[in-house]
Amino acid sequence: MAPSGLAGDTSPSSPVAGFVDTFLTVPVKLPSQQILARLVLVLIAVATGVACGPSTRPLTSQYPDDRPRYRGQVVALEEGGIGLHGKWTFWYSNGEVQAMGSFDRGGTLSEADRLPHETMIPEVGRTGEWSAYSRSSNPVWRGTYRNGKRHGEWSWWHDDGSLRRRGQFVEGREVGLHTRWHSINVIAEEGQWVDGMRVDAHRGWYENGQLAREGSFLAGVPTGMHRQFASHGVMQQETFYVDGEICGLRSLWDDTGRLYWTGNHVKGRLDGEVVHYHPTGKVRQVGVYFVGQPVGMHSGYDAEGRLVWEQEYVDGVPSGRRRMFNGAGEVRSEAAFLAGTPVGTHRIWSDGGEPLAEGEYRNGEAQWVWRKLER
Q1: What is the C-alpha separation between 326 and 301, in angstroms, rounded?
Q2: Beta bridge partners of 106
Q3: What is the DSSP string of 146-170?
Q4: How many other β-carbons are positioned within 10 Å of the β-carbon of residue 124?
């Protein structure tokens, strides 16, 4: 049973019920025009009772020093319990306004929401314009809600009062141009959105105005060439995307603009040759990948371009020969692997090419004690 005074209440104590009782107890012998008129009045009274809306009661709370924490109204919900309704104001413990806005049969406030210096405000049921402020009374954000979701234009501000972000929302999703700022007139990022997803060109900038990144999106996923730059303008990354996955050659540069890595990709995974570079520009490491895993012979070189090591891979794990070399190009060690496990005879030589030690591996374990070879 709905509480007394709620819309549609026809209990004996309600005004609507009283009017209906009056109509039903009048003499029956009345002209048809008067009967029709009384019936119309009854229908108007019932409709008025519904239009007056739900019955509300005030709800307030204070901080321990009796400063106001929040003030508003609650209403009985059809599914049971009560919900926040109508205009509400929330305050910080220092007396400054925390937020202001309205609810339409919104959520509830529990003890856990009453933090020492502020209140956790539920989003359920928020409607119309809302504003939030800092403890020093500066605006933090302002926007409108519909059914508890952002809807319409929204703005956010930095602590110094300068605009931080602005954009439109529809049913909680970003639409149109969204822009962010580092500070006054110093743009940080901008791009178009459709139904909560990035579309078309998006760009970001450093505080010094230097372009930080650029790239396009299609239905929220990156597409085409994307680039990233250092704060002093040097290119640091160049990546091509197809359907949100890295495709083709990807290149990376250090802060000085020197290329230090390139790798080919297919559907987001390394596939093809991958090369690492020394700061001098000489190759440091090179090898081939297939479906994201190293395969074949991989090699490493020193800054002078001399071979330092080589390792064979099968299905992403060491399988086959591994050798290490000294500066003269002579073998320093030699080993064999099978599916990532050391097997067979392993040998070590001195920088001068003299044999130093050897040992045997079976099932990944040394079967013989490593022995130093006679010189």
Answers
A1: 11
A2: none
A3: ETTEEEEEEEEE-TTS-EEEEEEEE
A4: 14
Asked if 1 and 10 touch (Cβ cutoff 8 Å), the reply is no
Q: Which residue has the tokens 């374990």?
A: 365
| Residue 368's pLDDT band (cuts 50, 70, 90) | low
Tell me how far CA of residue 119 lies from CA of 61, 66, 85, 345, in angstroms.
Answer: 10, 15, 17, 71
Rg (CA), the chain: 37
What distance lies between CA 233 and its chain's CA centroid? 27
Q: Phi, psi (5° rounding) for residue 354?
A: -85, 140
pLDDT of 369 above 80: no
Residue 130 has pLDDT above 60, yes or no: yes
Mean pLDDT check: name the lowest of 99-108, 323-332, 350-359, 365-374: 365-374
pTM over 0.90: no
**Residue 32, phi then psi, degrees to nearest 5:** -60, -35
Predicted local distance difference test score (pLDDT) of residue 358: 86
Nearest CA to 107 among 126, 127, 94? 126
Q: Sort residue 363 into left (φ over 0), alpha (ψ -120 to 50) or beta.
A: left
d(CA 250, CA 242) in angstroms, rounded, equals 13
Q: Which DSSP string corresponds to 343-360?
A: EEEEEEE-TTS-EEEEEE
Q: How far is CA 46 from CA 5, 19, 34, 37, 121, in A?
A: 13, 9, 19, 15, 36
Token pair of 337, please? Answer: 């692997």
- The residue whose two tokens read 């409108």 is 144
Candidates 252, 197, 205, 255; CA nearest to 223 is 197
Domains of the chain by residue range = 1-53
- Rounded Cα gap, residues 56 and 84, in angstroms: 9
Q: How far apart are CA 264 and CA 270, in angstroms?
A: 6
Question: CB neighbours (10 Å) of residue 23?
Answer: 14
Angle between helical axes of 15-24 and 32-51 (0-180°, round to 10): 170
| 239 in Cβ contact with 246 (< 8 Å) | yes
pLDDT at 264: 96
